[in-house]
Structure formats: C-alpha cells, structure tokens
Amino acid sequence: MNQYAQRISSLRALMRSRDWDAVILTGSDPHGSEYPAERYKQIRWLTGFTGEAADLVVTADHAGLWTDTRYFIQAAEQLRDTGVELHKTRVPEQVLIPEWLASKFSDTQEPVLAVDGQCMMQAFADSITDAFSGVNAEPLIVSAPELINVLWNNRPPIPQTPVFTVDSGCARIDKLEMLREFCRSKNCDGILLSALDEIAWTLDVRASDIEYNPLVISYLLVTEDAASWFVLKEAIEDPDTERAFDELAEDGVSLERYDSIQEYLSELDGMRLFVDEGSLNHQLYSALLRSGVTPVQGRTPVALAKAVKNPFEIEGMRQAHIRDGVAMVHFLYWLEKSIQADRRVSEWDAAVKLGEFRASQAGYQGDSFETISAYGPGAALPHYVTPRQGAPVLEQRGLYLCDSGGQYLDGTTDITRTVPLGDLTPLEKEDYTLVLKGHIDLAMALFPEGTPGCRIDALAREPLWRFRRNFGHGTGHGVGCFLGVHEGPQDMRQNLNPEPLRAGMIISDEPGIYREGEHGVRHENLLLCVEKGANEFGRWLGFEPLTLCPFDTSALDLTLLDSSETEWLDAYHQRVYDTLSPLLPGDLARWLQQKCRKIATFAN
Length: 604
Known about the structure:
- The chain is α+β, with helices and mostly antiparallel strands and 604 residues long.
- Helices cover 34% and strands 21% of the residues.
- α4 packs parallel to α5 (122-131), α12 crosses α13 (347-359) and α14 packs antiparallel against α15.
- The radius of gyration is 25 Å and the shape is globular.
C-alpha cells in the first residue's frame, strides 16, 4: 500500500470513529482561492494529485477525485495505486459531487456528511443540500474545520508575509465609499469581503501569503462607519508592513486578529450583511446565521470594478508587458542558440532560465504561476508540471511549449509560446497553424457592446472545428493588475457566462490542440478590450494585444492562413519589433527583426 492509499485508510478510520458516512474536501482555502497556500493543499497531501482544481469524496467503500478536462491525463497517472477513482467534469456525461452523493445515499435516511467547513464555500454546501431535495434522504452536513489535522503531522502554518501598499490610480477611501454606497443601495448594514484578490484591490495592499499571488490572507468587514481588516496572525517586524498599517489606519481601517473573525461576526446580531457565498466559507456563513445576522447574498461590486481597469492600471499593464516582452525575447534567443549549439537543455533548465531573464526586469516580484515548460508529449498536458529532477531534454526536432507569466509592481503577465526546435511533421505544422489561426481570428474580433465572452469563444475554435479538432479548456480568462493571473467575472469559454465584455477588461486568448503522447500547441496573448467606435447600430468593441513577443513563423503552413490573418500577424510583429528593439542589444535586435519579418518576405 503506497503512502496515499495509507492516508485514505487513516481517514476512513477517523470517519468510523466519528460515525461519518462521507468526508468531502475541496481543493481551496477559507477564501475560495484558486491557488491555496501550502497549508490548504489537503487533497495533494491525501492523494498525491498536484493539479490546481480538484475536490475529493471519501466514503467507507469509495474514494473519488473530481477534476476537469485539463487534468484527466495527469490525474490518471498520479492516482494510480492510491485507490482513488477519477471522476471527470466538464464533459457531457459528468456527475458532479452533489448529485453523486444524493445517488450514493438515496437509501440512507440521514447520511452524515463531514466537511472542512473552513475550506468549503457556502455555495458548494448549498448545492449538496439542493441535490438531496429529490431523494428520500436528508443529509446532515457536519462542519469539522481542519479535520485533517489529526492525520497531517507538521502541517504548514497559516502564512504571514510582509505587507506593502501600492498605487492603483484610485484612492483607498474612494473604494471604501463605493462599498458603503453599494450597501446603501442593497439596504445592508455592511459587507464582508472574503475573496483575497477583492480585499487586496480594495485596500491597495499586497503580500506573498500565497505562492505566485501577491495576496494577504485576511477578511475585510466594511460598515457605514468602520472598516475592520482581520489580518493579524502573529507579531511581524517589518518596516514596510508597519508603514502599510499606519497608512491604512490613517484611512480609518482598523487591524484585527485573523482568527477573531468568527467571534466578531457573532456580535452583529440584527445586521443585514452582504456576502458572496462563492467565497464565504460554510463555517462563517453558519456562524452568521447563529448570531442573528441576515446574510444578503450576491456578487460583490469589487469583482466588476477590479476587472475594468482604469487608465492608470492600463498604462501599468502596458509597461509591464513591454518589460516581460524583453525577457521573453532574451529567453527565446537563448533557447534557439542553445538548441542549435546542441547544448543539453532540459524542460526544467529552460524554466529556470526564463525566470532569470524575468528577474532582471524592473519591478519584477516573482512568477504569476508555475511555469509550464513542456517538450513533445509533455505539452499534450494543458497543465503539465515540469519535473525538477529527470526532466526531459529538448532535442533538435518537434515542438516545445512554454506557458509562463510574471508579477510586476505595475502589472501581471501571462503568455504561451509554442516553439519549433527543428524538423516538424506535417501534422505538427498543421496543428501549429490552425491554433494560431484561431488565436488571430479572436484577436481580430469586432463585436457590439454588451456581448459576453461565450458568444465569441467560437471564433477561436472554428478553424479547429473545420478540421474536426477541439480543446477542452476555456479560450480566455480575466487577468488582474499585479493581482491574480485568473480573475472574473468575464471569461471566454463555451460555458454560458452572461457577463458582457467591457472596455478596460483584460482577457487571455489561448486556443490549443493536445494530442496525448505526441505533442501540444497553445498560443496565448493577453488582450485589452477597447472601444471601436459607434454608429446607428450601437457601440462597438474590439481588442488590443498587450503581450509583445513574436510567434515563430517558421512552423506555419501558409496555405491555411487567409490574407486578413497574415496582415494581422505582420502588423502585430511590426509592433513587437518597433516597441522592443530599442530596448535590446544589437544582436538580439537583429534576431528579433528576422523573427518579425513580413510573411511575404518569409514565404519568398
């Protein structure tokens, strides 16, 4: 029995001792974060699955892990011999956890379902209760915060890293007033923010409590006459933090202990409090109900305000992408010369080198996510984890995919380039070209104001569909400004998200093709949604590329591109060269000029 099977067995022993019929664990933290701190990676510790999105159910006779199309191949490999079965989501035949539980315990009068109430959002708990409404069973959901503690020795502590403030082009007191005005409009006495990116945006604070995310693990309660930030975990002696706390105090923000939030909420009897059940955990929501608070549920105004960047933030994102583009050109030049010289370069070596180039840029604060450095079959995994030891070595053939990003004081980047390392098969060229064709078609989109991303997602897929090819992940996601690399409420995917795209929003454009055991292709830029004029038919929107880095045209099958696509590519490359070449040494500038030459020149 491997260590993960043993851990599942130990969890079942705990369940028997407490008369629990099932344990449900989510892959998140007390704030509904996409990327939790090490302390909250309970599913990784229990099962060995390292993907970013997964939930786990353990019963007396079954252990199941639910994850989406990005991780199917990875999960099948990592769950082998653990006794944990993969349940696939985002597929037509999916059976999600609430429905599965209702079916599993349909003949049990009162199944006892234990959850880590701190790490399960209230929306998830509600969905479980709703699923049982059609069966002859009434589940008892038992909140057992940090139930894993009795099994997980030396579990990492709640992190507390130095805090600093940033300029966002909007005063903190104005953001707090916006929240108060929102509460008045909803007839609420206050609002509780629990999503970490929303708190960071509102207070203009940053830290490193979560890897790759400049966030502070905390809660923020704003009422008509007070703003209480539940952030203190232990004594921290740091001049930047002291200055940040003093600055917050000047704006009327009081500092409270992080672990006092539940006690504080219990004293709000009679209040109407606005909450987002998608980021408020079950434990705190239950505490609100017990204390006599009336929760008013909905999406906070911060999500949309944060997504629509102001001119200061847009300029910061542009500048961050220029410096990131310089780092990428240095990297691609180094990679090409290393491969041509037959130097030994592994996937991990390449990832480290890219990090070094980024670290040399002004304002760099770290990567925005773990670099996906994948060669050949590894690139067929959309969220491949590059091994530190024994990583595949790059060869003078085939395709290498690198998906990476940086955090800078003025912006966040996310870019994917698929690079030909030598001879390509006709299929590799065809896939490479079709994905770039889809990328370009979306980047050229012109659409009426009020259009959601789901309505134009097909623009990036249609060139692939024409050849009966597709990809399982979304085409685009929102990106924060020195915040999370994934944010909403906007996105670009086949799910019917009604949120309209608005001028000032930033979204990724990243179609792909993945052939298991062979190769993967993805091309990604970040796009700024901009106004494109108005006429008698309404106002029009389109996109401006923020990412500045050449696509390798040597891998293209030019017969698959039409004239408008080659014109877009030529214009994009001219912009890349004009912007970046003055910032590069002579040899790199000349190399970039060749990479950015017009398609007609290349074809001849």
